[in-house]
Design a protein that fits this description.
Largest sheet: 7 strands, mixed
Strand content: over 45%
Number of strands: 11
Distance between the termini: 40 Å
Oligomer: single chain
Radius of gyration: 14 Å
């Protein structure tokens, strides 16, 4: 019914930038909060950034000032602009969204996109 598809990951050198995108498709009536999580090998999944339907955002302390989350509601898409990347940012990044489908709110996950920061 609903799919979230991430794109934009890859291998990048420290200090460089990447932009992740996540598009929702299917029986989407409306979308509430959209968020990016990440999971590094051997670690728990953590919330990186979230943005509500009114545009207010919050961030993991370690990415504040470097990452920016934004959304295009007309395209059902959320973005994560990642600047000044560090090796510690290496992880699989997952998109998550609260989506209203047939009057039922559900939380959906994408399959993830790998981000590797290495020289």
């Amino acid at each position: 019914q609903v799919q979230l598809v991430e794109s934009g990951g890859g291998l990048v050198q420290p200090g460089r930038s990447l932009r992740l995108s996540c598009a929702a498709s299917g029986s989407v009536f409306s979308i509430n909060t959209m968020a990016w999580y990440r999971q590094a090998p051997g670690k728990q999944r953590e919330l990186v950034a979230a943005i509500s339907s009114d545009g207010s955002a919050n961030y993991l302390d370690s990415v504040k000032g470097r990452f920016t989350i934004s959304r295009d509601s007309a395209k059902n898409t959320v973005y994560l602009q990642m600047n000044s990347l560090k090796p510690d940012d290496t992880a699989v990044y997952y998109c998550n969204a609260g989506i209203l489908v047939d009057r039922t709110l559900g939380y959906y996950w994408g399959r993830g996109t790998q981000v590797t920061v290495s020289s």
